[in-house]
Design brief:
single chain, alpha/beta, Rossmann fold, 2 domains, 7 helices, 7 strands, 35% helix
Length: 239
């Protein structure tokens, strides 16, 4: 048996709770893919919670997977280890699947999603995405592909002084209709100090980018984030 008290930080604990909330008595994921899994803490917690048929750990660094295999040596079933590129996965079209992509930048996540979507056009997939930076690039890609990426949930969180945006998407849930992903997000609540701090950080970043902005993308992003000042705590939707 696994250790029942795997300790997760704020970021991974948030992802863990979102996954459990998404599960229903009549609908469990057949497979959950913990990609770029590092030490595998999140996947191990999910495996311990017995919330799906199989947890698949994916990382392209061999020694990481070797250490993870050692940590899982007492677990006899319910998981698989894959040493390879998360963008090259083969997802079974007949299974309900969740792909977790976290721990890398937004631009790299876009490359992975493009590859995964091209390789698995008929797969029934939810994506739980949490880039470490360049979230705007990820949002632009998701925004431009609304049929494949409908928003289930989005959130801002702070873990050890670093800010993250979490995006939970689906392509196949018929109950989700008008859920096009915003370029800036609709989860802002400026009554929260963390949201204020993160917003100020984004403004500083894009103001600095204006010095070298030949395509105008930084200027547009700055304008979009500045417009968020009109959102109040009472206006902010709860997703």
């Amino acid at each position: 048996m696994m250790n029942p008290s795997i300790q997760l930080g704020v970021r991974l604990q948030t992802l863990y709770e979102l996954i459990l909330d998404r599960q229903r008595p009549t609908r469990r994921y057949d497979q959950i893919w913990d990609c770029c899994c590092d030490h595998g803490y999140l996947g191990r917690a999910l495996l311990n919670a017995n919330c799906c048929e199989q947890v698949i750990f994916v990382d392209q660094v061999p020694h990481i997977m070797d250490r993870l295999a050692d940590r899982l040596r007492t677990v006899r079933s319910g998981f698989q280890l894959i040493t390879g590129d998360a963008g090259k996965l083969s997802l079974a079209s007949e299974k309900s699947q969740l792909v977790i992509l976290a721990g890398v930048g937004g631009e790299q996540l876009v490359e992975m999603l493009i590859d995964l979507e091209a390789l698995n056009p008929g797969a029934s997939v939810d994506y739980l995405l949490c880039p470490v930076n360049h979230t705007r690039a990820l949002r632009q890609y998701l925004h431009q592909n609304p049929q494949r990426f409908k928003l289930l949930h989005e959130r801002i969180l702070c873990d050890r002084g670093r800010f993250y945006e979490v995006l939970f998407t689906t392509s196949h849930d018929s109950s989700v209709t008008e859920a096009k992903i915003s370029l800036c997000g609709e989860m802002w609540d400026f009554s929260l100090a963390d949201h204020q701090t993160y917003h100020a950080k984004l403004l500083r970043y894009y103001r600095a980018r204006l010095r070298n902005d030949p395509d105008g993308l930084a200027a547009q992003a700055l304008e979009d984030y500045q417009s968020l000042n009109s959102i109040t705590a009472s206006d902010a939707p709860s997703r």
